[in-house]
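Entry 0007
Protein: U3 small nucleolar RNA-associated protein 15 homolog
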Amino acid sequence: MATYKPVVVQAAPKLGEKITQDTLYWRGYKTPVQIKEFGAVNKIHFSPVSPYNYAVTASSRIHIYGRYSQEPIKTFSRFRDAAYCATYRDDGNLLVAGSEEGSIRLFDLSGRAPLRQFDGHTKAVHVVGFLSDKYRIFSGGDDYSSNLWDIPSATEIVSYSEHTDYVRCGCASKVNADVFITGSYDHTVKLFDARMKSSVMTIDHGQPVESVLLFPSGGLLVSAGGRYVKVWDVLKGGQLLVSLKNHHKTVTCLCLNSSGQRLLSGSLDRHVKIYSTTSYKVVHSFNYATSILSLALSPEDETIVVGMTNGVLNVKHRKPEERKEKSQKRQPAYRTYVKGRTYMPKQEDFCVSKPVKRVLRKYDKLLKSFQSSKALDAVLEPPIRLYTPEVTVAVMQELHRRGTLRSALAGRDEKQINLLLTFVARRVIEPRFTPVLVTVADMITDIYQPVVGQSAIVDRQFLKLQEAIGKEIDYQEELLEVLGMMDTLFATFTQKKATYLDEKKSNGLTETTETNTND
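Output (structure tokens):
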């Protein structure tokens, strides 16, 4: 008895994933470390100075983590209610945070008790930060106000009440020590100058603003709210440069990498998108388990930290670069391992081949035992039918070659007929499957024609199949018309008769002769 040959599945060529330098760079992170916090993580901020610890604000605590530590190395818990937006000063010595009760607390990293407490907001303070002169603090709260505070005297310098809804985000300019920006749920982003009594610029984002970011140069502003990330030119009076809509849900956080050439955005759709700041196209993306509330990138791009709504902190560290010295030391072991692989047997050598055990798939085993109907059922299961339809079509083609396709299709109930017709109607328009599935559709119609009208579900699938084939025929007719037009155009370009000039000079006269090339 001859050995059974498995079904040959004709694999269509697939386009490979485009590997770019960004893909290689952002894939160069280790498996993430998961840290559980006490509540949703609303802010992550890295210290600007080495060793680049980061502050995590969640629930009523602020945890300070080392770069590689999985346990907090310091905790600030002097809050009666939720804490918000813990932010480092540029020298890494001080930390400021807002709170649900409306007060702002200033901490020294070497102690635990607050150095200063600023009271003036009547509702929760969700955004705080230092101006670049290091001696003033800006804040925004749910009382619609944006305030400026003096650190040495712990007094309020000025209060702006221009927003008409909650102020939930803000940032300070690194170029000008008097400029800071706030974003509000009233859809506006306002630019304030501490030397002026009112805002100097108002930008309408069009959605409740969740995050704002100012480029290091101070010329470009990024705002995030709703599904949009928008880039504005501040030097041109707030002119919109580009509007990005790559997320499916609200964008909650923004950050830049150390070089300022990549912009990162996190969203409630569980994705972090990475954009090029030259073309503003997505160059890479990360997928996470739950919705993202906060995002931070270490100053050297060595660590990505993401805070999520379920209180989980996701930390990714960059893989260390492989050293060439180690690979050189391992070369002798590798040569030993591959020794003899390239040996060619001589004429007098006796070769002993090791038998290879072939593992057959489920449908091959059923075909080997001539169970045609069960083999067809096996390839109509969802994993094969949906993700590898070429296997299903290959088995149908093999059954047709054996002459048992009609018997495999016959004797099926309403559910199985519906499944078959759904598959055929969806895949019959694909050119690689059309020759086989047209035969299958013809057999199904011939076998189950007597029962048409007895089941509304089966009748609906027959109508869908008819509609799919009708559309495909219309497309083919249109393509043939276009092909005919192109043939006509090409025919006009061909020269049926070619002439050339044969100039002969005799006695000072030029003789012109027209010659037919067909002669």
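Curator remark: The first helix runs from residue 21 to 26. The chain has eleven helices and 30 strands.
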